[in-house]
Each structure stands twice: as structure tokens, then as C-alpha cells.
Specification:
116 residues; mainly beta; globular; 53% strand; seven-stranded mixed beta sheet
């Protein structure tokens, strides 16, 4: 069974940093591209960034370029989202995502709150 489990969310002040983690189970992680999305209250889920299966290619939404960094450790079946210089409007539930063939899988999400 495919399972994605996020962790690392919490409360952070504006301008602060947070690192999210996503643990993957039940599939060949090292062969799969991975991604992060977020959903703020009352808004649609939006793409944050993604990483290729090897980790050699990363891509980001324009709103987070230069501040967020996605990485992965295929030996540990983990993908990470390092978020720097966070803004209050980035308060959201952050989700780990994995496309697999015609299917797509989501984690349960982790809450990130940016507030003073």
C-alpha cells in the first residue's frame, strides 16, 4: 500500500524557516518524482515544487523560488521541503504528492502557520 506521511509543520514567525519531511512507503521511491502542494484556508490547493526521481531536477512555483528548496534521500525514502523567509500568507496545510502511472497519491498534510 502506497503511503506518504508528512511531518515538521508548526508555528513559525514571519521571516523564519521550517523544514518539512515526507516519508514514503509501499512503492519504489527511487523511481518516482515527488512534489509538494499547499492549501490555504478558503483557497484551492496549489503547486509548490517538485523533484525528479534522481533529485537532479527541481522546479518551483514562482512565488517560492529562491526561498524554498526540495531535496530527497532515496536511501531513506524521504523527501524534504526547506522553507525560508516564510510569509504569513503561506499559512497552509502542506501536502506531499506522488504521481504513479495513472494514479496520484497524497499525504495527510501538515499544518504550517506563519504568524507573530
Amino acid at each position: 500500500e502506497v503511503q506518504l506521511v508528512e511531518s515538521g509543520g508548526g508555528l513559525v514567525q514571519p521571516g523564519g524557516s521550517l523544514r518539512l519531511s515526507c516519508a514514503a512507503f509501499g512503492f519504489t521511491f527511487s523511481s518516482s518524482a515527488m512534489g509538494w502542494f499547499r492549501q490555504a484556508p478558503g483557497k484551492e490547493r496549489e503547486f509548490v515544487g517538485g523533484i525528479s526521481w534522481s533529485g537532479s531536477i527541481t522546479y518551483y512555483a514562482d512565488s517560492v523560488k529562491g526561498r524554498f528548496d526540495i531535496s530527497r534521500d532515496n536511501a531513506k525514502n524521504m523527501v524534504y521541503l526547506q522553507m525560508n523567509n516564510l510569509k504569513p500568507e503561506e499559512t497552509a496545510v502542506y501536502y506531499c504528492y506522488m504521481p504513479l502511472g495513472v494514479n496520484e497519491y497524497w499525504g495527510q498534510g501538515t499544518q504550517v502557520t506563519v504568524s507573530s
